[in-house]
Amino acid sequence: MAQDNDDISARIAQDKATARSLEGTYLFDGARSGVNYPLNKMCMSLTSDANRKDFAADEDAYCDRYGVSPETKAMVLARDWIGLIRSGGNIYYVFKLAAIDHVSMQHVGAQQNAMSLDEFRAKLNGFKDADRPQITPETKGS
């Protein structure tokens, strides 16, 4: 049992090291989760319709309500998606903010890759289904 846990821990450590080595990858793990907690808490609050209305009415004051730093607030107001992620924002929480503006994940991805939306979509369309491993009942879980 202890050996199994050691093997799992080693694989997790290797996966994290690999992810951290990829340029433009911002691994959101336990250590990073507290880096910009006020931003993540504020973005998570936007799941409530009442909170979205409060945010829309006064974004600046709404950021203050959650203790968002002035630097992060500037990124929120500018909708600097990649800046928010680099500052410790969880992509899933930051996307709740993007959704208020009806911005798709593709818009966020384009900014993260320093591309126009059309360039990013062309990149996505360059991946063909035939190039991807297909999951079938026979291969699922293997």
TrEMBL record:
It holds the Pfam family LigA. The keyword Oxidoreductase applies. GO terms for molecular function: protocatechuate 4,5-dioxygenase activity. Residues 39-124 form the Extradiol ring-cleavage dioxygenase LigAB LigA subunit domain. The keyword NAD does not apply. It comes from the Bacteria. Its EC number is 1.13.11.8. Keywords: Dioxygenase, Oxidoreductase. It is an enzyme of class 1 (oxidoreductase). InterPro entries: LigA_sf (IPR036622), Xdiol_dOase_LigA (IPR011986). This is Protocatechuate 4,5-dioxygenase alpha chain.
